[in-house]
Design a protein that fits this description.
single chain; alpha+beta; five-stranded antiparallel beta sheet; globular
Length: 314
């Protein structure tokens, strides 16, 4: 018995499902034992936007009796010591079988059902990932300066907002915190451990399929304001965030959204889904402009917003 999770989204929950079939579990264990070059127990792969690998977490300890396979492995994440193409061929049938094994209801299924749409989206993102493998880098975090500073908005003469020091360890150091918070948490700078969704706190949540405009409406119902709709000093600290959107491949798969937050030092930070907080785009370049950075499939830019202290997210 194991849980499989495709790390590929940022805002919505990743596709995840539980396999209880003993034959399917034995087959996966046999493949992992025969092809150790396809997985790693210490992920060191790609952490940007888009496909980031498939995680398998075994629920029982039976496999320990005759195997060195750990409880949790990551496949096809572009770790330097793994074979990405071989790993892709291992995870492809797992992804294709998702609807067959996705009958056990999970909270993530409300927004991301393990259906044919999820399969189509995952396989397309996997193909892009394999054909154009990312360069994996882990730069030194940029975290200098005061904890927080008030700055004038260069585009809106009457507006001010707060930028804070880049602090990735706040999100990355604890694995449970990392998995339970997403880009919306990072943008608001609230570690709710609920994988927060726009509109859920205010009663206007997103459905499983949505447009970029829908994300704007739901986020603004939580209290976000469009840039230049100035927040008063009473809303301190006010965060400048930017919203981007990944279309749903012409109606064949699930769309997604992503948020960035401006930081001290002239750059922007973000947190792709349940992955690590970072200040790099998909080309491993420090993000100085979220409109122009490499965002992978998140091709639509939906503007800048400010989130004040009264914004509640869950």
């Amino acid at each position: 018995m194991f849980r499989a999770t495709i790390h590929m989204f940022s805002g919505r929950p990743d596709p995840t499902w539980i396999v209880v079939d003993p034959a399917a579990t034995d087959s996966v264990l046999a493949t992992l034992g025969e092809q150790p070059e396809t997985w790693t127990a210490r992920p060191a792969g790609f952490t940007g936007l888009g496909f980031r690998g498939v995680e398998i977490e075994f629920f029982g300890d039976d496999h320990r009796a005759d195997s060195r396979i750990p409880d949790r492995v990551m496949l096809a994440d572009a770790s330097p010591d793994t074979d990405l193409r071989a790993a892709a061929e291992v995870v492809r049938p797992l992804i294709e079988a998702m609807p067959e094994h996705g009958r056990i209801p999970l909270p993530e299924h409300v927004l991301t059902p393990p259906d044919t749409r999820a399969v189509t989206t995952a396989l397309r993102w996997l193909d892009i990932f394999v054909e154009h493998p990312p360069v994996v880098l882990t730069p030194e975090p940029i975290g200098r300066g005061p904890l927080r500073r008030t700055v004038p908005d260069r585009l809106c003469s009457d507006c001010q907002y707060e930028i804070s020091r880049f602090n990735p360890n706040f999100w990355n150091a604890d694995a449970n915190v990392r998995r339970s918070n997403n880009c919306y948490n990072y943008g608001r700078n609230w570690r709710t451990n609920t994988f927060a969704q726009p509109g859920r706190a205010s009663g206007q949540p997103l459905g499983s399929v949505f447009t970029g405009a829908d994300v704007v409406v739901s986020a603004m119902s939580d209290g976000l304001r469009k840039r230049c709709d100035c927040l008063p000093a009473e809303e301190f600290p006010r965060r400048m965030v930017a919203l981007v959107y990944a279309p749903d491949f012409e109606g064949t798969g699930y769309p997604d959204y992503h948020w960035y937050r401006e930081q001290i030092g002239g750059f922007w930070g973000h947190k792709p889904g349940g992955g690590t907080a970072r200040n790099l785009d998909n080309s491993n370049t420090v993000i100085t402009n979220p409109e122009a950075c490499d965002r992978g499939t998140y091709t639509e830019f939906h503007g800048y917003f400010c989130a004040g202290r009264s914004v509640v997210i869950v």
